[in-house]
UniProtKB/TrEMBL annotation:
The lineage of its organism: Bacteria, Bacillati, Actinomycetota, Actinomycetes, Propionibacteriales. This is Glutamate or tyrosine decarboxylase. GO terms for molecular function: aromatic-L-amino-acid decarboxylase activity; pyridoxal phosphate binding. The modification N6-(pyridoxal phosphate)lysine is found at K229. Belongs to the group II decarboxylase family. Sphingosine-1-phosphate lyase subfamily.
Amino acid sequence: MSGALSRLQELQAQDRPTHGGRTLAYVFDSGLEEVDRLAAEAVAMYAGTNGLDPSAFPSMLIMENELVGFACDLVEAPPTAVGTVTSGGTESIMLAVQGARDARPHIRKPTMVLPATAHASFLKAAAYFGVEPVLVPVDQEFRAEVGAMAHAMSADTVLAVASAPSYAHGVVDPIAWLGAAALAKGVPLHVDACIGGWILAYAERIGRVKPAWNFSVPGVTSISVDLHKYGYTPKGASILLHRTPADRKPTYFASAAWPGYTMVNTTMQSTKPGGPLAGAWLTVQSIGHEGYLDLARSCLGAVDLIVAGVDKIEGVDLAVRPDSSLVALVADDTCDVFTIADEMAERGWYVQPQMTWHGHPPTLHLSVSAATLPLVDECLEALGESVAAAQEVGPVEVDRNILKILRSLRPEKLTDADFDALLQAAGLAGDTGVATLPKRMAQINVLLNASGPALREALLVAYLDRLFRPVRV
Ligand SMILES: *Cc1c(COP(=O)(O)O)cnc(C)c1O
């Protein structure tokens, strides 16, 4: 074996497993090993291709149209609907926002109306495209408030947004009502079904009540749905659907104003790798509607068991009853979620901490996969043990020295020297100007949690800046 390949294998051994059903964030596992193996082969087969020009790689055009056609079924798309395969949820959302803005060029100060629980990628799109986000508070169960959303829609609103479901809490916004409100106001409505679309589509077919969330709702003009989440495809694939070709058109970009090839792009990418598309196409072809029905049964079955199991564990509770495959847990004052997350990691389970938000306590986020079903008992046992271990040590004490430094920092004025002092105090300083990754996260998470959103952003940007430093030989 080549030296580089064996080094790559060594390096990868540090990572969280992408398969096996125990990593409950960032990755999604169908448990279908043969499909995954074939999909990886498809990715490799297409590793060198480029979707920039469908006349050079016509197979990519065919795969994309077939994938979008499959997705149309899932979102009850009208015959007029069209779609675009993108590199991920964020790109789908960025395009949806850019397209909505550019469909209304006469609006000089465009706004976008969002439930406060909308995915952060909308704020990224707002920042990139100069659209002002209008964040509308949500109700007690973290769902969008229809009246307040409607009230926020104005003549300058280029897009309203709803989640199906929201990432943080896993609840579906009242989309039927939001659609009616958006229609009445003449505002396009984007449904962010990035994480939940693929599974919500099958929830009703297996007899679970599902709120209306897709193109069956008049007023919904675009929907994003990720392949690389509950489509269980390799990473780098999502779909943005529009109700009509006219709605999609502003997302296309063309330029003949240079001496090279006339550049025509359907997405933010130009050179468009064929690997993720081929991997997604192969996965969806192999699993099919029947397969996805089974996967939805397994995944939502696992969620039911986790919900029932959490009820029996003293110290943690649901933040809200989940509408789909995402579970958010809160801890009572005997322990904190950050220690529970570390303890889960020691037991081979990766769960994702979410920070304090709008006066709500921090939570643990579980993106449950179909492959988790056979491991639910083990998961609940690990959770029970982790909560007990976290209760044993009690809530994490914030290091007073570090807290003092934090209190003195202004996010907008964070200097390199400030940050160096903080890294030193936190024991995360590497060689000069470089940071290391911590083993246990609780101490750091507690500090970030105490920092407030603006300082948290500034600290993490500074930290990433120190992590991503060139290694020169
Ligand atoms: C994951 C997610 C996104 C962003 O998708 P990426 O693929 O991570 O870029 C957007 N919205 C929701 C609700 C998501 O869960």
